[in-house]
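Illustration 12: Oxidoreductase.
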Amino acid sequence: MFNINMKEKDFKVLLINCNTMMDVLLPVGLSLISACLKEKGFEVKLFDTTFYKISKETGDEIRAKTLQVRKTNPEEFGLMYKDTDLFEDLKEMIEEYSPDIIGLSCIECTYELGIKMLKSIRHYNIPLIVGGVYATFAPEYIIAEDCVDMVCVGEGEYALVELCTKIVEEQDITSIKNIWIKKDGKIFRNGIREPVNIDELPFQDWSIFDPKRFYKPMGGKISMTGTFEMNRGCPYNCGFCSDYGLNKLYANNGGYYREKSIKRLIDEMKKKKEEYNLQFAYLVAESFLTTKRERIIEFIKSYKEVDIPFWIEARPESINEENVSLLESAGCEGISIGIESGNLNLRRELLDRNMTDETIIKTFKILERSSLRVSANNIIGFPTETREQIFETIELNRQMNAPGVMVSLYNPYKGTALREYCEEEGLIQKGSLAGDYRSETVLNMPQLSREELLGLQRTFPLYVRFPKSEWPRISKCEGNGQEAEILYKELSREYTEKFL
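Figure caption equivalent — predicted structure in C-alpha cell form:
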C-alpha cells in the first residue's frame, strides 16, 4: 500500500479543505484536528479551495439575489478570487511541502470536486484519507474510490493523531478506531471510539488559514469573525439534520451530544479575540438555549470578559422573556430561529419537530420586543410537501413578522432520517449526492418539480412581506423568461428598499 520511513525526517500532514466558494466562516473541525496534530509534534499545512472560482455564484450572492440577506462587496476587504489554477496550485504545494499523508475534508456537495482533486495527485503515491460528515455516513462509497486509502468515520481529532503516530512508529494501522483502511486487497472497517472530551482538546489552530478567512459578511456588513464550538451535536433528531445519524452512530458509545464547559469556552474566546482582533463571534451550538438555566447564566456572566457581538441559533420553544433579556445583556446581536415548515403535521410526522404554530408565533412576538436581529429559517421542498403546504409556511411567516426571512431548498443529505425515507420511496438513489441547500435541490417530485421550487424560493420573501394584493404579480416572477425577470427586478428593488 504505502511505505514511509520516518526515522530521518519530521512527519508532515497536508489537510485539504474542499469548501464551498467564498464561504469564509472558519471550520471548527479542521481547526481542532490541526491543533491536535501540532500538539503531538506533527507539522500541518492547509490547502483551501475557498477563494477559487469553482462555481457560478457564492452562497451569499444567491441569498442576496433571493432577497434573504443584504448584498455586500467582499472585494472591499480583499476577498477576491485567486487567478491561478486550483489543481496546479495543489500539485505545487505538494511538491514544495512533501507531505507524508494528505487528508481531504469535504461535505456532500463538494465531494465530487474533492475526489477530482485526489485523483489529480494520486501519482505522488502519498497516503490519502477522507473525512467529514459525508465520509462518516458514506464510507462504503468513498473507500471504493481508487484514489482513497482510508476513510475517517466519526470524529477525527484522536483518530488522526493515532494514525500519524503509528505510521511514524511503524506500527500496524489496520485496527485504529474511526478509520476504515484498505490494505493488501482487504478493507478493515473499524468501529467507533468513545466521543472525545471537548474540554480536553487544545484551542483551535487558526494559523493554517489565510487571514482573509476572518472577514465574514453578517447583517450587510463584514466583520472579523471567529467560530467557537460551544456544544457538539444536538439532543434532538430533526428529520433533515445529520445529528440524527450522529446520535444513532454513537448511541451505544456514550452518545454524541456534549457541552463544553463555559470556562473553557470563554478562555478560548478571550485568547482568540486578542490574537486575531476579532469583532464578532459565531457560536456553534445547534440549539443554544436548550441546556440548563445555570449554564446560560454562567455564560452570560462570563461573557463580559469577551465583550464582542455574537450570533446564535435556537429553537422556538427555548425562547422566553428571561432568556432574551439575558442574551441582550451579554451583547448578543442576532439569533436564527428554525421554523422549517408552517404545516403542523409535516413538522411533527416528517421532521420530528413537535411544536405548535402558537409556540412559534409567541416566540417571534417576544423577539419583536427585543433589540436582537432576528431571522427565521425555513426549508421548502420536503418529500411529500405540496405547494399548498409551502404557502402555509409563508402564512406562518407573515404572522411571525420576523425581520429576516431565510429559505433553503431541502436536500436529502446522508446521515439524515429523511435521506433514508427518500431512498425507500425511490426519490433518490443510494449512491447519489445531494446538492447545496442554498441554490439547488436534487429532488424532482411529481407534486413539485425542481423548477417550481426554485421559483418559490426566490419569491418566498416577497410573498411573506408584500400585501396579498401583490400576490398575482409575484406569482408571475416564479417562472423564467424576460417578463418574469423584469418584474422580479422591479419587485426586488422595492423589497430591498423597504425590508433589507
